[in-house]
Amino acid sequence: MLAVEGLTVAYGGLTALAEVSLSVRAGQFVSIVGPNGAGKTTLFKAISGTVRPRRGRILFEEHDLLAVAPAARAHFGIAHVPEGRQVFPSMTVLENLEMGAYPQSGRQAWAKNLERIFALFPILADRRNQAAGTLSGGEQQMLAIGRGIASSPRLLMLDEPSMGLAPVVADLIFERVEELHRDGLTILLVEQRVAEAVQSCDFGYVLETGRVVLEGTHDALLADDRIRSVYLGM
Question: What pLDDT does 169 receive?
Answer without folding.
Answer: 94
